[in-house]
Amino acid sequence: MTEKSTETKVAEAESAALKLAQLSDDERSAALNAIADAIIERSDEILEANERDVSEAEELLAAGEYSQALVDRLELSPSKLDSIAEMVRSVAAQDDPLGETQTARELDEDLELYKCTVPIGVIGTIFESRPDALVQIAALGLKSGNAVILKGGSEASHSNRVLFEIIREATSEMPDGWSQLIEARADVDALLDMDDAIDLLMPRGSSAFVEYIQDNTSIAVLGHTEGICHVYVDDAADLSMAADIAYDAKVQYPAVCNAVETLLVHESVAAEFLPKIAERYVDANVEMRGDEASRAIVDMEQAESDDWATEYGDLVVAVKVVDSLGEAIDHITTYGSKHTESIVTEDAERASRFMRSLDSASVFHNASTRFSDGYRFGLGAEVGISTGKIHARGPVGLEGLTTYQYYLEGDGQVVGTYAGADAKSFTHEDFDGSWTPGSLSDR
Amino acid sequence: MTEKSTETKVAEAESAALKLAQLSDDERSAALNAIADAIIERSDEILEANERDVSEAEELLAAGEYSQALVDRLELSPSKLDSIAEMVRSVAAQDDPLGETQTARELDEDLELYKCTVPIGVIGTIFESRPDALVQIAALGLKSGNAVILKGGSEASHSNRVLFEIIREATSEMPDGWSQLIEARADVDALLDMDDAIDLLMPRGSSAFVEYIQDNTSIAVLGHTEGICHVYVDDAADLSMAADIAYDAKVQYPAVCNAVETLLVHESVAAEFLPKIAERYVDANVEMRGDEASRAIVDMEQAESDDWATEYGDLVVAVKVVDSLGEAIDHITTYGSKHTESIVTEDAERASRFMRSLDSASVFHNASTRFSDGYRFGLGAEVGISTGKIHARGPVGLEGLTTYQYYLEGDGQVVGTYAGADAKSFTHEDFDGSWTPGSLSDR
Prior knowledge:
2 copies of one chain form a homodimer. The radius of gyration of chain A is 26 Å and the shape is globular. The longest helix of chain A has 20 residues, at 43-62. The first copy, chain A, is 40% helix and 20% strand. Chain A is α/β, with parallel strands linked by helices. In chain A, helix 2 crosses helix 7 (157-170). In chain A, helix 14 (348-357) links the parallel strand 12 (340-344) and strand 13. In chain A, the strands form 4 sheets. In chain A, strands 10-9-11-8-7-12-13 form a 7-stranded parallel sheet, with helices on both faces. Chain A has a 4-stranded antiparallel sheet with strand order 16-2-1-17, with no helix packed on it. The mean pLDDT of chain A is 94. Chains A and B meet through strand 2, helix 10, helix 14, strand 13 and strand 16 of A and strand 2, helix 10, helix 14, strand 13 and strand 16 of B. Strand 13 (362-367) of chain A pairs parallel with strand 16 of chain B, so a sheet runs across the interface. Chains A, B: One of its GO terms (cellular component) is cytoplasm. Chains A, B: Residues 2-292 form the Aldehyde dehydrogenase domain. Chains A, B: This is Gamma-glutamyl phosphate reductase. Chains A, B: Belongs to the gamma-glutamyl phosphate reductase family.
């Protein structure tokens, strides 16, 4: 097989996208279940290819160029393949995100406007070196009727090639070319210029990488740069609750973007709260880095100004004593990344002020920042967490992979009728109903 | 008054945006009505400044560097000011686009997630030389709780300065700096780099200008590039209806983006339809440019390949005979700009195939393309028409100037409870309700 150019692959995806949009949910979901079956049936092939990736990674590990954690993440097993197949089936079982009539409006008699959800089109995705990421993204793309360009990490290239081939063969009923694999970094740069053909880019990876993508394309980008999340312990907080939340938000899974990075504590409760949380953090090996006021209460490292703007992704937390709710809000506005912030307080008024004053995607009252997640939010499968404000923000589910289209059903109406001296008026009346292709509703 | 730098203006807007988000609809609407009053009260000032713009433009007109149409567009009058004030009042009277709870979901007992509409933040706008454009954009921005950076056409600079000053003074109750005027083209380029402070850019103007903006910023851009709209006359069309629609779509207002540019006609009705529409087009001075098959039926200019991809914005229409619905779809997919397309047919099945096969923002059945408009769609005031697929598409109303935020109300829940061996399950049950700031609902 001669390798196709990236341009050819994207053109194929573009043409497949238009056909994919016309398939029913049953058809798309059946193809997803066929992928799940094929992953189980052909697991020997997958594991064999994965072994090659893992042994190459282990050589790099031996040479000190790779970490054990990365090798672990790369490695597949029969039980991991079972759970990947299960994940694909659960995507198939989700509600159809397409064809939902969001608005049905009579503009005039027998002139009906429908706003309906449709796929976005062609989505370019660039993701990390977990072989399950390729399957997950392809599954979410197919469920939402989008053609996908897949670029995985090079460390998983053998696994990715086999998985891609299995998906391709299992979805032979789907429009040809709906998914495309690209492998070279240069091909990613080629994607960035294809703003006529690609409708959305979804990069996953480091902040620096996501920013590089944003800075080098005019295509819309859905992704998250940093997760600098805050917990603010108000002077009206239940301090035992505050300690539980601050502990969970840091310790339960420190490597993820919704973990807390900076703890802000009102000065009037700092002397009581800080020793309480410090004891628990010390037990969990959390390193605290504080400002002068915090260090006067509990012995800890000194926080430098960089600390307020750092996503540690580790068992480290910055601590600052603030003199007011207002100072907490200002601090978050200055250093935050608009991801997730939480206030702990028994005072509803103060909670409201905190929540309405911050423009982060998720703002919580008396709950851990770690709840900021598609599964916990009940969105079903999660595409990612967006720190942008446009299109989709916060945890993004299948809905974030859709857009809408306006369908207008008439019986020959022209605008001239509604203009000039004898202009007819519009009725503009919303009604319950959904678009029946090609015909006016029988209301 | 020393002129502030663009950076300072944007920083002021950023800080004002956070405060603006906390005001009530009544407060924002009262400020809008104050703007309307001030425009009437201070109309002499406005007209005086406008006279300077107009006389400068007339000098350019005399020198042949300006068209009469542009001078007309620039010119204000007492009655035009009345209608501008009326427009501002109608924006004030619209439903509040903010604070709408789109989803209320119980995640678990006393753990409630609310998805609510909020302003986007800071919106950079660049618009054409109509002084009413400044007022319209400022009004839509304020109603939707957004801070706006306003850059109007330099030909209207005297009018814009006075109008801006009037708006600023009339909205002294609003957060200081919520609207900002910039005047130099170099300042526009400065905006393009401020992706940390500006959340959305809305350029209006030529396609080339909108593309320039898209290509030179990593900020999200909402705008429309081209309006290459199509009417397809199917072989199952009512030909008299088809002629009415094709006539209205071209002639009723040829300069706008939702006018038809290419007429596609099924070969089996071309011999009957083309002479019928040609007669009406000739009466209205519409120039027809056709392919060979069309010219064999009606005498017209020959269409070159460029014609299929041209937005004439004038009394010119390209005409092509197609052998099937499929060829019409392919033609639109190749040459269209994803704006608005219409099929005329009595066959619901064929209408459905046309509408579902095209990924244009608006696809119509038996109605003129000219209906593609915020007012006609019943969206209230129109921000513009977007040809992108992300965030907002087609005619965009106030809703397009909003995004959403997730509010989570808990009573101390931590994620650790829902993880591991004894993990508690989420309930994930949607309920009717809206966010009451800072407190759990009494369900």
